[in-house]
Amino acid sequence: MSAAQQPTPTPVTEPDEPSRWHGIFREITTGNAIISVLAVVLALIVGAVMIAFTNPNVQESAGYFFSRPGDMLSAAWEAVSGAYSALFQGSVYNFRRPGFAAGIKPFTETLTYATPLIAAGLGVALGFRVGLFNIGGRGQMLIAATLGGWVAFALELPAGIHMIAALVAGVLGGALWGGLVGLLKARTGAHEVITTIMLNYVAFYLVSFLLRDGFLKTPGSNNPKSPASKETAVFFDLLGPNYNLHFGFILVIAATVFTWWLLSRSNLGFKFRAVGENPNAAKVAGISVQRMYVYAMLFSGGLVGLAGINQVLGTTTSGFGAGIDSGIGFDAITVALLGRSKPWGVFAAGILFGAFKAGSFSMQAAEGVPIDIVLVVQSLIVLFIAAPPLVRAIFRLPAPGAPHRRPVPNVTQEVAAK
């Protein structure tokens, strides 16, 4: 076959690049933030199923489902919508109360519950960024409450100065209790999970002893409870006496800004992140990994201590017992996970969990839904966050880092032999 008879090849054109909006959409759907949001959505869906199946009306109508299926579906909708409506009105805004000032009070309760969760969550998140798992929030809160609480009820100081002194004592107490963990890891290599768990028990029994026979005991009382904090040391109300929101919320906003600046803008924060990403590479680069562990646990314990002193000076000012932590030290781990260890993510996650806590009481009172349902929802959030591939599979999201599939042009041609 001569050259003149050769078929002319079809020119190959490059496929168009994806549009800018397509790139933005892909960046959103492959990011970590969408996983946190969808984890909450999935947990609420599963919670709705549990609310429906535990409702007596739904159980009764299920007995004749095949004859009248609409009754069961209607009962399930009423149970779920009523429960989540009560959750919203108990945590965000109650439309049944007269006036905006009364209606917005549930949201102020949400912020009050969220205040110690945010502070403790920031401490846990900072540890995560350095590769440390600070599970000792309970002990750090107890020591902070002990030192800060003693300053609050035992010393006579002017107003303002007294509050600052108690606040500093509490934060330093939490920082020293957390710094002990960092020191043990730096000097002996002891794993922080083991030491923080053990120090939780040490702090609990130490505080219990001090409340019974030590300097925390209320004179003339056999009740293991400390004396009430003096008025000069108590956090002032932000919105007046009709609301429980206090100065502690302003402090956690400042703590969030400080943690963001520390991790994102400071030289020490760069070292923290470098050690968290790869301690061996950080050591080769001249960073003292052991020193960073000590510094990180000092800051982490101080932030968790802020949660502890918040309980003494803001929430439980009439005296505290050994249960002053109220499980916040462990809930902070969930808050840090949901917030992806980012300061503002932790802030938002703390408000969400504060809303769950504030709304759960309203949900139980109005609809008879057990508070345990809310605890199950919180646990499911952690479960889904820990399994991003499961969330991506359910919502058919692309995996992060997956290449964009572009159409491949077909350049094969059939040449007839002559």
Give an overview in words:
With 418 residues, the chain is mainly α. It has helices at residues 20-29, 32-54, 56-61, 69-91, 100-103, 105-129, 137-154, 161-188, 192-213, 248-264, 267-277, 279-284, 289-315, 328-338, 343-367, 372-385, 388-395. Mean pLDDT is 87; it is low at 413-418.
Low-pLDDT residue intervals, each spanning 5 or more residues: 413-418
- Total number of strands: 0
Order of helices and strands: HHHHHHHHHHHHHHHHH
Q: What's the alpha carbon Rg, rounded to whole Å? A: 28 Å
From the helix content, strand content and strand pairing, which structural class follows?
mainly alpha
End-to-end distance: 7 Å
Mean pLDDT: 87
The helix content is 55-70%
Largest sheet: none
- The percentage of residues in β strands lies in under 5%
Tell me, briefly, the overall form. Answer: globular
**Multimer state:** single chain
Number of helices: 17
Offer a quick outline of the entry.
With 418 residues, this protein is an all-alpha fold. The protein contains 17 helices and no strands. The chain has helices spanning 20-29, 32-54, 56-61, 69-91, 100-103, 105-129, 137-154, 161-188, 192-213, 248-264, 267-277, 279-284, 289-315, 328-338, 343-367, 372-385, 388-395.
